[in-house]
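Ticket #4471: complex job returned nothing on first submit. Input attached below:
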Amino acid sequence: LAKTTQPISMDSYEGQEVNITCSHNNIATNDYITWYQQFPSQGPRFIIQGYKTKVTNEVASLFIPADRKSSTLSLPRVSLSDTAVYYCLVGRVGSNYQLIWGAGTKLIIKP
Amino acid sequence: DAGVTQSPTHLIKTRGQQVTLRCSPKSGHDTVSWYQQALGQGPQFIFQYYEEEERQRGNFPDRFSGHQFPNYSSELNVNALLLGDSALYLCASSLEGQGDYEQYFGPGTRLTVT
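Support reply: We reran it on our side without changes. The output follows.
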C-alpha cells in the first residue's frame, strides 16, 4: 500500500493559483492518484483522479510527472470557500483495494 | 438523486455501551465502506461491504462489526465502547467495477463516548 507525503498546511490569497504537491515514491504500476477535499464536520468530497500526465476538470487540474512518484493538485483562482483539508491518496482500482489516508494538507485562503 | 445519507447525525454514549450507525449509499451504488476519523486526522478505513459480505478490513478490533442489507444499505456496530472510539464515523459508497474508485461520502455521524 503506497504511502503519501504532503505538506501539513498552506496559506494563500483569494484569486491566486494554489499548487499542493504530494509525494508517493512507492506508487505501483496499477495505482491511481486521487485527491479529496474535506470541510470541517463534513465527509470528504472527490476532486480529481489521474494515472499519468495531466487531468483537468471544472474545479482542478492534476499534474503527474512521468515517474509518477509525485503529483500536484492545482486550484485556479482560489476563493475563501476553498479553505479546507486536501487529501492525496494512492491506490489500485478494483476489488479489495484499501486506501491509506494521511493527515492531509490544511489550506487556508486569506482575503 | 440522493447522495449518501447517514443516521444519526450526533450520538452520545457511555463507555461500555453498544452503538449502531446507519448508512444509505448513493443511488445505484453497491459498495459501502466505513471510516473512523479522529479530530485533526485523516479517515481510517474500518471495513468495506460488497454483496452483503465484508471483503476488506482495516486494523480495527472485532468490537467493530457491520452488515450490508440486500438494498445495499449498511450498519456499523461498535460494542463495549471506549473513550477512544469518540470520532466522526464516515460512510462512503461506490460502484464496483466502474473502472475507478471514486467514493461518495456521507456527512458522517459524530459519536461521543463519555
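Residues 5-113 of chain B form a domain with the Immunoglobulin-like fold (CATH 2.60.40.10). Closing as resolved unless it happens again.
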